[in-house]
Amino acid sequence: MGKILIVDDSDFDRLMIARALNKNIEDLVLFEFSNGQDALDQIIEVLPDLIVLDVRMPGMDGFEVLLSIRRNPDFKDRSVVMLSGSADAKDMKMAEECGANAYYVKPSNIQAYYDIAQEIQSQYLQS
Amino acid sequence: MMKEGPGRVTNFLDSILDVHPDLICRYDPKRTLIYLNKSCANFFGGTVNYFLGKQFTEFLPQKHLANAEVILSQITPKMPKFTSMQRFTYKDKADRWINWTNIGIFRPDGSIESFQSIGRDVTHEVILGQITQARQKELLSVRAELRSVIDAVPAMIWHKDDKNNILHLNEAAASSMGLKVEDVEGQNTYDLFGDAAKKYHDDDLKVIHSGEPYLGIVELFTPNDGEPGWVQTDKIPFNVGENTGSGKRLLVVSTDITKLKEKEDLLSAINKNLDDFTSLTSHDLKAPLRKIGLSAEMLSLGLNDKLRCSEKENLDDIRDGVEHMRLLIESFLKFMRAAPGGLELETLNLNDVIYETWTRLAPELEQINGILNLPSQPLNVKGDFALLGQVFSNLIENAIKYRSPERDLRIDISAFAQARTWVISVSDNGMGIKKSDTEHIFDLFGRAKPHLGVEGSGIGLALCKRIITLHGGTIKFLPSEESGSCFQLVFNQSGRIENGKNINSR
After folding, report:
1. B279 to A110: CB separation less than 8 angstroms, yes or no
2. Which residues of B touch A87 (CB under 8 A)?
3. 3-state DSSP helix/strand/coil % of chain A, to nearest 5
4. Are residues B358 and B447 in the same domain?
5. CATH number for the domain including A42?
6. Pair type for strands A50-53 and A2-7
7. B275 and B390 housed in the same domain
8. How far away is chain A from the Cα of B293, in angstroms, using its nearest Cα?
9. B438 in the same domain as B393
10. Are residues B362 and B488 located together in one domain of the fold?
């Protein structure tokens, strides 16, 4: 049970994590956005339990979106998980500094997606 | 008969005058000698008695005589004393310099009674003076030479004391202050620049008092009539000894590094761009790759029981290829980011690297009936697994590509230890490389020869060399009389490895 908001400019990447989350979590409600601004505009209405954020996106990048979320008193303690194509240590450090709860590198096989979904569900999805 | 008293006095004075080194003589207006001491007689080469009663016109050489007459004619009751210096050449004796003091003794009516001349031999002083003068001239020329040397130096040089006085400086330094050397030397910088001088003086004092040089100060500097730029300054303290006016001194040398700094800034901007480019490119390459790999996997899962065996293998090949390319991109990213010494190296067994490469290439080798012999001992080196794997797979792929059509391929990888290094050779029985072609094989795009029907990028060996150089190792092509190629790789040995674990890291 939970509401998860996914922000990623790649349809394919949204599909992959959505599939994995759906398989792991019952009664999941997913909201998908292809850019940060739309996600921020809708977040008040969606009131997600958890946000999955890509890092490199056109327009606002994931860090800017994360900072905006953290500045909002209603969402400053909400779980935000970064799911990025970059394995760059600089990006991981930046995510931590901006207040992300976790940072995952987008995997290259399906099982790894399931593992990430499992971890998200057990550790970061507040019920 | 002389009375006893005055006679004794005369004898007494004579005995003093005789041992006196000065040449003392007295003569009447007709130049007849009425007295001379022993020194004087000796000087002219005779005894006292010989000269007494003689006119000096009889024995003085002509040129001195004329000179003497001129001098004596100058002596009047009003100006009874006349001093002159003469270089005396007398007979065969060495030249002497004599300082003559000639005094006229006048009667009360003003007529001349006699002359007294006292000659002091000042040859030593004159020679010393000459030497001193020569030395001084030499010193001045050395100084002028040094001056032109430091003026020729493009760096700005100041020599200061602890009171902020500029003792010396070169032209470059003076012109940077908008002044002439002579206007600045000996001046206090507070007088020249007021409070603006304090900034430099504080630093100067720190250096002077600590006695430690302060080197490589890079700062903005705007010369008086020039563009602002960058200088690198060294401040070096030194002490001067007692005899040169003791004190604590400072040598300040500033070099204009504006051009260097601009280049450095440009270079770091380029590096930054390159870094951004590399990381963006790799990100953009990895995203579609992930898509291919995951799609192949989903196809394989989704069509599981509908696929034929060969079709399933095809999908697996796609995924293997994707995984290989992903690793390559990761490696390239690391490689591009790794400055020499900046690569994170771990202790590993090179044999594992070679084995992993072999398993990847085994199907291809099998297909062409090729054999690969691996070294048996663990080869502990410090390195990056993926990058080193790239080296061996490039070498093995080259061997496959350039194999001989006449015989089955055989690749031998062997290793031996030598002076804390591992010497590894990778040899094959393929087409080999002509001796004349070996020079440029490690250059980028430096392919040995175009082989009919053999694809090659011309990057492989260049990349091998870069990777190995980055690991502190070497690679070279060993020429051989036999057919085939042989590459020799040398790596520094690292800590011992046992069962895949590095003992040193415990």
Report:
1. no
2. 330
3. 45, 20, 30
4. yes
5. 3.40.50.2300
6. parallel
7. no
8. 7
9. yes
10. yes
- Classify strands B23-27 and B112-121 as parallel, antiparallel or unpaired: antiparallel
pLDDT per residue as tens, chain A (127 positions): 689 999 999 999 999 999 999 988 888 899 999 999 999 999 989 899 999 999 989 899 999 999 999 999 888 889 999 999 888 888 999 999 999 999 999 998 899 999 999 999 999 885 5
If asked whether residues B373 and B485 sit together in one domain, one would say yes
Option in A56, A106, A109 nearest B297 (CB): A109
* pLDDT, tens digit, 9 for 90 and up, residues B195-223: 878 888 888 888 988 889 999 988 888 87
Could you give the number of structural domains in chain A?
Answer: 1
Asked whether residue B129 is assigned to any structural domain, the reply reads no
The verdict on A44 touching B (C-beta cutoff 8 Å) is no
Over the stretch B386-423, which tens digit does the pLDDT of each residue have?
A: 888 889 988 998 899 888 888 999 999 999 998 889 99
Question: Which residues on chain B are in Cβ contact (under 8 Å) with A86?
Answer: 279, 283
How many independent structural domains does chain B possess? 4
Query: How far is B362 from A107, CA to CA, in rounded Å?
Result: 27
| φ, ψ of residue B408 in degrees (nearest 5) | -70, 145
Residue of B nearest to A14 (CA): B291
- Does B245 have pLDDT greater than 70? no
- Paired tokens of B484: 């085939």
Of the residues B78, B106, B121, the one at which a domain ends: B121
Per the structure, the complete domain to which residue A7 belongs is given by 2-124
**What element of type H or E holds B234?**
strand B229-240
Query: Which of A15, A108, A116 to substitute to test the interface with B, most B CBs within 10 Å?
Result: A108
B241/B310 same-domain check: no
- Please check the confidence at residue B440 and state whether its pLDDT lies above 90: no
Whether the CB-CB separation of B286 and B326 falls below 8 Å is answered with yes
Interchain contact A99–B (C-beta under 8 A)? no
* Chain A contact probe: residue of B290, B326, B328 with most A CBs at under 10 A: B290
- Quote the Cα angle for B338-A88-B337, to 5°: 15
**Which ipTM value was assigned to this complex?**
0.84
- Tell which of B337, B369, B394 closes a domain: B337
Q: pTM value? A: 0.47
